[in-house]
Amino acid sequence: MKEIVLNDGNKIPIIGFGTYKATEQEGIEAVKFALKNGYRLLDTAAKYNNEEAVGKGIKLSGVPREEIKVTTKLWRENLSYEEAKSEFETSLQKLQLEYIDLYLIHWPANAKNYDHWQHANAEAWRAMEDLQTEGKIKSIGVSNFWPGHLEALFKTARVLPAINQIEFHPGYWQPAVTAYCKTKNITVQSWSPLGRGAVLENETLKKIAQNHKTTVAKVCLRWVTQHEVIVIPKSTTKERIKENIDIFDFKLTQEEIQQINDIPKLGYSGEHPNVWPDREE
Ligand code: A2P
């Protein structure tokens, strides 16, 4: 499996396994199955309510802990120094782990929900930097941050975020955020690479899939990785869990990548960093 070297020197696989919406029993089985089938990067979050399941799946898989990279996230309503520290400990306990490989701020604080949003992000970040210094986190990063949130964070940050995990799929791939992160050497990770299934019937994607005798899902995932973006597809279906890691038997041409880049807005979640808890259409 191809790995990406992060700006802090740590390496992580270009494909990981997403667990959003997986329930307790489903989550245990899916994580175990994913690890047995070659996944070595797992993605969960305090908000997903399945960290315990992910932890159990890891133990039951028999794969040594040190071979697995585990990501979890600090929820957006807990952005202060103290809460970041205590929420992190709770996640660690639920996952039954000694350390986390990648800890992310799930969403930036925004002006609708915080009196001083910049301060809230900065303080949560300071706690994460301290936890990293203590050895409890290998890499620290953010999620759903736009350049403005990152610029604000840089004013006080001692450590540059290693990762920015954003909504990234055909029909909504945030090219400006992606390009900005590249200039700062922040690796982009894609959430919802299939636009929650909305892209599967797109004609452009279907045609490209036919050219390569493959599926639309694999075309989407390959397109993400050809952007040098890490992808974390989620599925609780065994066949799809296997399909989603088996995407290196074909390569998209530059022309096909461009066609996919140009797909009009499609499958957008409506989740917006400055608008939460509301959604956009
Ligand atoms: P399922 O769990 O039944 O496989 P996204 O990651 O863009 O949010 O999309 C997730 C959705 O896409 C899930 O509902 C998942 O359903 C479905 N999915 C995941 N992998 C595939 C695949 N290879 N082919 C079709 N649908 C998929």
TrEMBL record:
<dbReference type="GO" id="GO:0043892">
    <property type="term" value="F:methylglyoxal reductase (NADPH) activity"/>
</dbReference>
<feature type="site" description="Lowers pKa of active site Tyr">
    <location>
        <position position="73"/>
    </location>
</feature>
<dbReference type="GO" id="GO:0050580">
    <property type="term" value="F:2,5-didehydrogluconate reductase activity"/>
</dbReference>
<protein>
    <submittedName>
        <fullName>Methylglyoxal reductase (NADPH-dependent)</fullName>
        <ecNumber>1.1.1.274</ecNumber>
        <ecNumber>1.1.1.283</ecNumber>
    </submittedName>
</protein>
<comment type="similarity">
    <text>Belongs to the aldo/keto reductase family.</text>
</comment>
<keyword id="KW-0560">Oxidoreductase</keyword>
<dbReference type="InterPro" id="IPR018170">
    <property type="entry name" value="Aldo/ket_reductase_CS"/>
</dbReference>
<keyword id="KW-0521">NADP</keyword>
<dbReference type="InterPro" id="IPR020471">
    <property type="entry name" value="AKR"/>
</dbReference>
<dbReference type="Pfam" id="PF00248">
    <property type="entry name" value="Aldo_ket_red"/>
</dbReference>
<feature type="binding site">
    <location>
        <position position="106"/>
    </location>
    <ligand>
        <name>substrate</name>
    </ligand>
</feature>
<dbReference type="InterPro" id="IPR023210">
    <property type="entry name" value="NADP_OxRdtase_dom"/>
</dbReference>
<feature type="active site" description="Proton donor">
    <location>
        <position position="48"/>
    </location>
</feature>
<feature type="domain" description="NADP-dependent oxidoreductase">
    <location>
        <begin position="15"/>
        <end position="263"/>
    </location>
</feature>
<dbReference type="InterPro" id="IPR036812">
    <property type="entry name" value="NAD(P)_OxRdtase_dom_sf"/>
</dbReference>
